[in-house]
Description:
- The complex is a heterotrimer, with two copies of chain A and one copy of chain C.
- By secondary structure, chain A is mostly helical.
- Chain A has eleven helices and four strands; from the N terminus they run αααββααααββαααα.
- Chain A starts with a helix and ends with a helix.
- Chain C is mainly alpha-helical.
- Chain C is built from nine helices and six strands, in the order αββαααααβααβαββ.
- In chain C, a hairpin with a 2-residue loop joins β1 (41-42) and β2.
- Chain C is rod-shaped.
- Chains A and C meet through α1, β2, α4, α5 and α6 of A and β3, α7 and α8 of C.
- β2 (62-67) of chain B pairs antiparallel with β3 of chain C, so a sheet runs across the interface.
Amino acid sequence: MKLKHIVEALLFASxxxxxxxxxxxxxxxxxxxxxxxxxxxxLELTEDYDSHSIELKxxxxxxxxxxxxxxxxxVARLFEEKPARYSRALLETLAIIAYRQPVTRAxxxxxxGVVVSSNIIRTLMEREWIKxxxxxxxxxxxxxxxxxKEFLDHFNLSxxxxxxxxxxxxxxxxxxxxxxxxxxxxxEQSETEQSSxxxxxxxxxxxxxxxx
Amino acid sequence: MKLKHIVEALLFASxxxxxxxxxxxxxxxxxxxxxxxxxxxxLELTEDYDSHSIELKxxxxxxxxxxxxxxxxxVARLFEEKPARYSRALLETLAIIAYRQPVTRAxxxxxxGVVVSSNIIRTLMEREWIKxxxxxxxxxxxxxxxxxKEFLDHFNLSxxxxxxxxxxxxxxxxxxxxxxxxxxxxxEQSETEQSSxxxxxxxxxxxxxxxx
Amino acid sequence: MLDTKANPVAEEIFSGTxxxxxxxLVITAPETAQNIAPTIMVQGxxxxxxxxxxxxxxxxxxxxxxxxxxxxxxxxxxxRKQNLxxxxxxxxxxxxxxxxxxxxxxxxxxxxxxxxxxxxxLLAEIKxxxxxxxxxxxxxxxxxxxxxxxxxxxEYERIKKAAEELDEFPxxxxxxFELFVDTRQITVVRPLPNVExxxxxxxxxxxxxxAEQLSHHQIIKEPLSVRERMSSILTQLNTYGTCLFxxxxxxxEGRHGVVVAFLAILELSKEGLIEIIQDEPFGxxxxxxxxxxx
Lengths: 212, 212, 294
C-alpha cells in the first residue's frame, strides 16, 4: 500500500484536519513514516486533485480535503433550507405597522394584546420592510416604525393608499385575495401591473406557498 | 462547469447518500439534468476514483463516496472507539427480519427456538435498521418487522436482492424407519438414503409442502 | 481417572477439539471427582445416565453453554460435530446427548431456559414414537415425527449461516467509512420566506376582530384625551405629511376612542394645524400637516 493512498484514506475519514504528527501516529511506532515522506505524499495528493471539485488544503491545524469554493453556487443549494414561513405574530405586527404607522412597539403591543418579540422587529428590519422614521417624544423616546418602499415593492403596491381600508378589512365576507385598488387612477395602474405580472411570473413568489 | 464536477462536489459535500432525484433537485427547475446524463457522470466519476482510496458506491438510498474497505486497517486506527460488535442473537434476528420480512416477533422466535430479547429489537429499531411496517391481523395485532434503507446503507447494499440467497432446503421425505442406535448397519442405510436424496433434489420445495 | 468415553458431553468438553468455533474449551481434569445425583425429569421420569464421576467447573460450563443460541443451536452442534446430515438425524443418540447436556446444566444450577426443556421433551417424544412396534402401520397422512424437527433445524441453520454472512458484509464504521470533506468555505444564501398581501390583511383582520372583542368586554377603558390624540396625530403628520383619515382612528379603543380621535382631528383642523383633503368625489379622506417644518 502506497503511503499516498493511506494518507488519502486517513484525511477523508478524519472528521478534523490532520497534522503531520497526527498522520504519523496512526502508524505503529516502528513503522511511522518520515515527515519528509508524508509531505511528498501530501504534495502528490494535492496534484492528484487538481482537476477535481475538492482540494487538499493545509489549514492551521493540519491538512484536510475541502470542497472548492467555486463549487459554492451548487453546493450551497444542498444546504439551503426550504424557505421558512413567517409566524402569525410577525404578519400581525407588519400589518399593524402598515396601517398604524408611525407606531411604537408599545402601541403594537397594545393593539395585539401581547408582547412583540425583538426577533420579529429584527426580522422585519433586516428584510427592510420596516424602518424607524422618528422617535416619539415620550420617556425613552421609542422608535416610531413605518413601512418602507421595499415593503410596497414586495407587495406590488405603488402606495399605501392601495391597501384596503379598515372597513373593507373588517368585512368578513371580503375575499382578501381580490382586494380592489382604492381609486380609479390606482386601479388602472394596478391592473396594468397585474396583467404584466401574469405574463412574467414574479420570481420572488414561492410556488409552494401560493399553492398551499 | 461540467456536470461531473458538480455531482462530485455535491456528493462530497452531502452528509448522506444522494439519490438521482436529490441530485436533480439541486438544480433550478428548468436546468435539471436528465437521469441518463447524471448516470453517465456518476459512471465517469466511479472510474475516476478507480486508483484512489475512496470509491463512489451506490447504496439503497443513493450514491455516496466512502473509504475503501481495504483501507480499514489504517482508518480504524483513527478512531478510539472500536466498531460495535453485534451478538449472534442480534445478527440472527436481523437476518430473519431481512430474509423473512415482514415478520412478527413470534415468528422470529419460532425460527430461532428462543425468546427474542426486547433489547435486541430496541437496538435494531434505534439504529433504524428495522421498522414496523404493519400489524398482523391476529389476536394482539403484533407488529410486522421489516428492514429499512438505513440497514442496506449500513451494510453497503443497494437492495435486498444483493443479500446472498439462503442455503437450499432439502426435501424432508423420510422413510419411517428407526435409525437408532447408530450402528454400522444404520449408518450404511443412512448413506444410501442420502445418495438417493442427492439424485433427486428438490431444492425449491419445502418438505412440508410436498407432504401436505 | 475420568472416563470421557461414557458421556458425549464430557468427551466433547474435555477433548477440546470441538468443531464449534465458539465452543472450544480445554478444561483441566479435576483432581477429585464428585458424586453428583442427577435430578432432571424428562417426560415424568428421572434422567440418570450421567457418569457419576463427571465434574466440570460451573464457570467453564456456563461459558460453554452461553455460546449456544438456544436448543436448535445446541442440537445443530451435536449433529454437525459428528458430521451427520440433518436429514439423517439419529434421534435416539442425539436425544441422549442433548439430555445429558441439559442435565448437566441443571445439576450445576445454571439458569436453564425453558426452551431447552421443551426441546428435551420433544426429542424424547419423537424417540418413543419411533420405537413403537412395527405392526402399527403408519398412514400416509401421518408425518414422520422427525420431519418437523428437521425442517426447523434446516431453517435455523440457514438463518445462522445468513447471519454469519451478514456479519461479513463490509459495514459502515467498521470496514468502509464515511468521508468528512470540509464545506465551511461554502457560502449559503438562505432564501427569505415569501409573504402575500392577503396573508398580511388576514392577520390584520384578526387583530381587529380581537380588538373589537377587547373593547366590548373591557370594563375599564384607557382614559383618552383629545389633546393627547392631537399630538400623536401631529407627530404622525410631521413624519409623513399626509395620512389616510381612517388611519387616525384606533379601533381597539372602541366607539369612545374613535370619538376622541374624531374630535382631535376636528380640533386640529379648526386650529389650522392640519388640512383634510378629498382628491375626488367619494374618494378617501386624507389628512395632511399644515405646518411643514421642512
